[in-house]
Amino acid sequence: MKTTELSRKIKDANRFRGVANCKALKNHETLQELVALLTTPEGITFAKQTKFPTLDVLRDKTVKPTLLNHGIMVDRDVNVSNIPLLFLVGKGHSHLSYDNNSQIYTLVVMHGHKASITATNGALVSLHNIDADVTIETENFGKVIQL
C-alpha cells in the first residue's frame, strides 16, 4: 500500500482527528518520513494525546517492516537491554532492562502491551504509557520517569 493510499484511508476513517491540516505533516510524504516523525518527542506527544496511530493502522502488513526499522515492535514479545528508543505496541509481553547511566532511554508502550521494566545502576528511562500494562522495578539509583 502506498503512503498516499494509507493517508487517504486514515483521513477517510477520520482517524487523524483534524491532524490532516497539521503543518508538521505537510512536507512528509513517504511512510518512512511519517514513521520517523512518530519517533520524535513531538510525535510521541501526539500519539499520547490522540492515541494515534491506532492498533489497526500499526498492524497493517505493509506498514510493519518500516515500523520495525524504526524500533516499533507490534504484537511481539521482546526481551532486551539498553535500547535507546523503543515502541512496544499491541499483544505481547516484554521484559526490558536498563543498567547504563550514560544516556536517557525512551520507551513508549501502547495499545495493551504488557511490559516489565527494570532500571538499575543509575539508568534513567523516560516512559510513555498509552493504554498499556507496565510494571516497574528500580534499584541502585535507577529511575523510570512516567511522562
List the main descriptive attributes of the protein structure presented here.
147 residues; 6 helices; alpha/beta; globular; four-stranded parallel beta sheet
Q: What does this protein look like?
A:
The protein has 147 residues and is α/β, with parallel strands linked by helices. It has one domain. It contains six helices and nine strands; from the N terminus they run ααααααβββββββββ. It has helices at residues 3-12, 23-26, 31-38, 41-50, 55-59, 64-69; strands spanning 72-74, 79-81, 85-89, 93-98, 104-110, 114-119, 124-130, 133-138, 143-146. The strands form two sheets. The protein has a five-stranded parallel sheet. Strands 2-4-6-8 form a four-stranded parallel sheet, with no helix packed on it. It is globular, with a radius of gyration of 16 Å. The chain starts with a helix and ends with a strand.
